Amino acid sequence: MSKMQSINEFDIVFISYDEPNADENYNDLINKAPWAKRSHGVFGSDAAHKAAADLAETDRFIGIDADNIVHDDFFGVEIDMGKIRSTDVISWAGKNIVNGLVYGNGGIKCWPKDVVYGMQTHENAPKGDKRA
Hints:
Layout: E1 4-6, E2 11-16, H1 22-32, E3 37-40, H2 45-55, E4 60-65, E5 78-80, E6 90-91, E7 94-95, E8 102-103, E9 109-112, H3 113-118
């Protein structure tokens, strides 16, 4: 069953630490999505994403890493939530400006808050866990 949902119905959280263009990229985002929030200065991927989830008031949020510039047309995207499981992370590819490659790592993601709160990224993986 189709259940189309606009990207604009999710909270958008810009996640920054000390990226050189973070302020410039955040200002660009705010010009396109004035409702966007910012999580800044939280050390570590795990903690930074949990802090972003804390800022979000929606069950899912759009996480935008500070080295991303979002194209205007992104805000016209609709997701068929009828095809998405509650634990799915939706990822959009980004273009690396250094090498021109396009891939999902570091791109924009639509995170379920429950998944973020339950995840353990490499810096918080149990000691000795070789999968991390």
